[in-house]
């Protein structure tokens, strides 16, 4: 691969993602999600994905589109409360779900990308996270078909810690505000969220960027994620419906409530 990592379209960017691939997907709620890449993957046709992402979008946007189409087999997430179809599939045994404390999920992605196979954390110690038995998958009759295993524990300075494994995935899909042709990325404000961590975890990381610049235009001090962690860059345009930046919960005040 040359230093120019750009591809011409989101369809080309995800064309080789196979059936059953594991995916790390950036975003938090609907903020900073790689919506154009997700839409292209929906059109591409593969499924059976094992997805690692903080959440699973909503019923009609983001990863919720892949979920509704029956293309996700397993989710590793920390929060899933905004998606009714997610709850339906999980409780009916159609979807396997591993719930992970949010900070632990972030560190598992970072550790995987840094080549750290496992680490100890106090989060979840003394709960079912550590003891095992959490339902990962239900049977159609409502019984637990697959339960979480117990985690290895160790005591440091009188406190119990759990051993958590780093996460590596076949691909990662992320969204950045600015990227250059070498794959250096800049994220904007809260849209940074899980994007750099997901990018670290992917063996092949694909970034959709809103603004594509030439190498050398980014000040090195501005770069949030170096291009060494990114294999493909594709520009998305504001007038593309698939690249729309939606608001998950629109909270507004009336004129009377907000005053002049």
Features:
single chain; 260 residues; 8-stranded mixed β-sheet; 3-stranded antiparallel β-sheet; CoA transferase subunit A; transferase activity
Give a description of the structure.
The protein is globular. α2 (35-44) links the parallel β1 and β2. The protein has helices at residues 10-14, 35-44, 63-68, 84-91, 102-113, 128-131, 195-201, 255-258, and strands at 22-25, 49-52, 72-77, 96-99, 118-121, 135-138, 144-147, 153-156, 159-165, 169-180, 185-186, 202-213, 232-235. Strands 1, 2, 3, 4, 10, 11, 12 and 13 form an eight-stranded mixed beta sheet that branches. With 260 residues, it is an alpha/beta fold. It is built from eight helices and 13 strands.
**Rg value:** 19 Å
Could you spell the SSE succession in H and E letters? Answer: HEHEHEHEHEHEEEEEEHEEH
The main pleated sheet reads as: 8 strands, mixed
Could you estimate the helical fraction of the residues in percent? 10-25%
> How many β-strand stretches?
13
Low-confidence stretches: none
* Euclidean distance between termini CA atoms: 57 Å
* β-strand amount: 25-35%
Mean pLDDT: 92
Shape: globular
Structural class: alpha/beta
How many distinct helices?
8
């Amino acid at each position: 691969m040359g230093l120019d990592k750009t591809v011409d379209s989101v369809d080309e960017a995800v064309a080789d993602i196979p059936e059953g691939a594991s995916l790390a997907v950036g975003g938090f709620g609907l903020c900073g999600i790689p919506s154009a890449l997700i839409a292209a993957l929906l059109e591409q046709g593969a499924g059976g994905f094992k997805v690692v992402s903080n959440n699973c979008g909503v019923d009609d946007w983001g990863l919720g589109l892949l979920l509704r189409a029956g293309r996700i087999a397993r989710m590793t997430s920390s929060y899933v409360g905004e998606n009714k179809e997610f709850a339906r599939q999980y409780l009916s045994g159609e979807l396997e779900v591993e719930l992970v404390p949010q900070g632990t999920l972030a560190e598992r992605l970072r550790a995987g990308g840094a080549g750290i196979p496992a680490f100890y954390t106090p989060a979840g110690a003394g709960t079912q996270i550590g003891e095992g038995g959490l339902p990962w998958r239900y049977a159609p009759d409502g019984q637990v078909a697959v339960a979480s295993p117990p985690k290895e524990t160790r005591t440091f300075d009188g406190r119990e810690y759990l051993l958590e494994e780093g996460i590596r995935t076949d691909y990662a899909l992320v969204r950045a505000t600015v990227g250059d042709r070498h794959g250096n990325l800049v994220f904007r404000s809260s849209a940074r969220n899980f994007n750099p961590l997901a990018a670290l975890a992917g063996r092949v990381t694909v970034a959709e960027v809103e603004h594509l610049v030439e190498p050398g235009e980014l000040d090195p001090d501005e770069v949030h994620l170096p291009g060494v962690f990114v294999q493909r860059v594709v520009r998305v345009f504001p007038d593309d419906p698939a690249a729309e930046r939606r608001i998950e919960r629109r909270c507004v005040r009336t004129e009377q409530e907000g005053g002049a």
